[in-house]
């Protein structure tokens, strides 16, 4: 039975073998018939650069996979200083002479690999490790526990082609086993779940040099290699619709201009207020000096008036007591005394008139200064808006305090201005009364002198007695009023000293306020100038940012050789060495001797 089975299978094999050989022969001849002849062309070339780094970032091995999109099949010439080339498409041999690579493309796509040596990457990548705050070599990390910090630094590689550094972005990825790494922190990067791993990703923009750190608590340290991909930042950026933002910026710019305008008006108002306060201080000083002079002369005025009063009383009593016993010489002396009394009344009258004029001038200056204070009232809402405008709060508080003080001084003056206005008429009335008394005294002196000339002594004495009695009585009333008046002047002088001190303080405050308002206006003017073209500035910043990162105009160039043409894309795939614990060596199983075709065929029959 076994023999019959073997014979049947062997016969079957003999029947199949010729057809197999024929098919192989046909395939061979077919391949030879389709083998392209002559020069070929290609439409696109793509380069993918693969590089390995040590765990600390030192460059180790590099090879490039070249892909061609074939237009016309045939012989293609490429360029590259490869140490070794390998056909990845078919079994055709690739010929290499120095930096020239020649191959035959027989399909629409052709791939080959070329190994490079001493060709620097466009980026200098440095990686360092610290454990519990101490720098640790990568070889000493496997199996360790503690607080781990990984620092990754990227920089431009000197001597490497600049086109890739200027136009490519780097994506750095760390895949960390969540069983080994906890409390992962990556400032400037993103941390996401990727299956059982936690994936940390950093991005480096074109023309930038960056430094990143990853911090984590590690147990039984192991880590896969860090993956770094470099691709052209060729995506174009569409300018965002900034109409809404520029509209808001325009509103802000207009508001800033309005604030500056308002502060300018406020500054002008404060300048007027300060000028008014200065005039008020000057007028108040004049009034203060005048009232003090009046007060200082009041005692002399009262004493002089008292002397006149006493003299009149003595004269009246003397005339009444002497009657006809008075001789002619005494009467003549009385005439002279009346003349002197009239002169004294004239001086007093002149003094009161001068005082009235000085007081009137001082009171007028005070009134003008008070009236120069603006009557406009700043509302609480206006004050709050000013405080929220960003102006210097100290200056704003001074503005408000000075404004309130100025309005208070104006209100106080309006309440007491009636008393100030009444002083001038009182001085005029007093001077008029003295003038009337002086006229009466002169009349008495003239009448007595005329009587003496006519020698009508009795009639003269009688008239003199009546006149002196009336004059003495009237002057007593005048002296009492004068004493009361000078007392009021003294009280007014004392009170006004305090008022003048307040006015002087107001003037000093408004002067400081004007300086502060000038500084405030200077600041708001600068702010208004800097924000006047805020929408344009913002649009300019947007355009600059887009131009900085928009690399859509970049034309790809070959990383391997500048002689390579029609390069459509170049990509970099970079990976560092993994940090792994050493595995225990296992005994390798005995390998069976590889069987040939006939051995396998005969085994079918066993």
TrEMBL record:
Record keywords: Coiled coil, Signal
User: For this UniProt entry, which residues form the secretion signal?
Assistant: 1-24
| Residues annotated as transmembrane | none
Superkingdom of this protein's organism:
Bacteria
Q: Note the Gene3D superfamilies from the entry.
A: Methyl-accepting chemotaxis protein
Coiled-coil segments on the chain, per record: 345-372
Q: Which InterPro entries match?
A: xxxLxxG_rpt (IPR023908)
The protein's name: YhgE/Pip domain-containing protein
């Amino acid at each position: 039975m076994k023999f019959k089975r073997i014979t049947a299978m062997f016969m079957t094999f003999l029947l199949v073998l010729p057809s197999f050989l024929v098919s192989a022969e046909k395939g061979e001849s077919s391949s030879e018939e389709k083998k392209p002849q002559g020069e070929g062309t290609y439409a696109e070339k793509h380069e993918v650069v693969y590089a390995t780094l040590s765990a600390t970032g030192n460059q180790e091995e590099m090879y490039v996979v070249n892909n061609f999109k074939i237009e016309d099949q045939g012989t293609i010439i490429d360029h590259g200083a490869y140490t070794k080339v390998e056909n990845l498409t078919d079994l055709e041999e690739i010929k290499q002479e120095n930096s020239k690579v020649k191959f035959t493309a027989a399909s629409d796509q052709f791939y080959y690999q070329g190994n490079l040596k001493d060709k620097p990457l466009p980026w200098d990548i440095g990686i360092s490790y610290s454990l519990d705050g101490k720098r640790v070599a990568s070889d000493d990390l496997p199996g360790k526990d503690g607080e781990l910090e990984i620092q990754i630094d990227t920089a431009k590689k000197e001597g490497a082609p600049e086109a890739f550094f200027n136009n490519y972005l780097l994506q750095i990825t760390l895949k960390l086993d969540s069983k080994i790494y906890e409390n992962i922190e990556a400032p400037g990067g993103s941390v996401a779940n990727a299956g059982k791993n936690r994936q940390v990703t950093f991005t480096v923009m074109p023309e930038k040099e960056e430094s990143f750190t990853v911090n984590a608590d590690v147990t039984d340290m192991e880590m896969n290699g860090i993956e770094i991909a470099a691709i052209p930042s060729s995506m174009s950026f569409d300018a965002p619709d900034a109409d809404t933002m520029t509209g808001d910026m325009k509103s802000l710019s207009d508001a800033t201009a309005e604030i500056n305008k308002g502060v300018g008006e406020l500054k002008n108002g404060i300048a007027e207020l300060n000028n008014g306060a200065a005039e008020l201080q000057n007028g108040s000083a004049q009034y203060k000096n005048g009232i003090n002079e009046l007060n200082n002369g009041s005692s002399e005025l009262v004493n002089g008036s008292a002397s006149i009063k006493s003299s009149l009383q003595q004269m009246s009593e003397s005339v009444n007591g002497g009657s006809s016993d008075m001789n002619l010489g005494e009467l003549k002396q009385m005439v002279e005394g009346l003349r002197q009394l009239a002169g004294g009344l004239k001086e007093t009258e002149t003094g009161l008139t001068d005082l009235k004029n000085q007081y009137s001038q001082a009171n007028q200056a005070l009134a003008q200064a008070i009236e120069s204070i603006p009557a406009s009232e700043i509302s609480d809402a206006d004050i709050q808006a000013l405080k929220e405008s960003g102006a210097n709060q100290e200056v704003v508080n001074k503005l408000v305090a000075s404004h309130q003080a100025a309005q208070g001084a104006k209100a106080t003056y309006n309440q007491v201005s009636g008393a100030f206005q009444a002083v001038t008429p009182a001085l005029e009335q007093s001077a008029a009364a003295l003038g009337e008394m002086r006229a009466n005294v002169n009349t008495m002196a003239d009448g007595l002198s005329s009587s003496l000339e006519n020698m009508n002594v009795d009639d003269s004495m009688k008239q003199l007695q009546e006149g002196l009695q009336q004059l003495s009585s009237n002057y007593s009333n005048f002296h009492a009023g004068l004493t009361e008046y000078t007392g009021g002047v003294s009280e007014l002088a004392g009170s006004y000293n305090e008022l003048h001190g307040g006015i002087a303080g107001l003037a000093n405050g408004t002067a400081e306020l004007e300086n502060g308002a000038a500084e405030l206006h200077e600041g708001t003017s600068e702010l208004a100038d800097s924000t006047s073209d805020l929408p344009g500035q913002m649009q300019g910043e947007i355009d600059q940012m887009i131009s900085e990162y928009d690399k859509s105009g970049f034309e790809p160039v070959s990383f391997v050789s500048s002689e390579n043409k029609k390069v459509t894309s170049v990509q970099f795939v970079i990976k560092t060495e993994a940090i792994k614990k050493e595995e225990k060596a296992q005994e390798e199983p005995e390998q069976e001797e590889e069987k040939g075709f006939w051995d396998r065929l005969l085994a079918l029959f066993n």
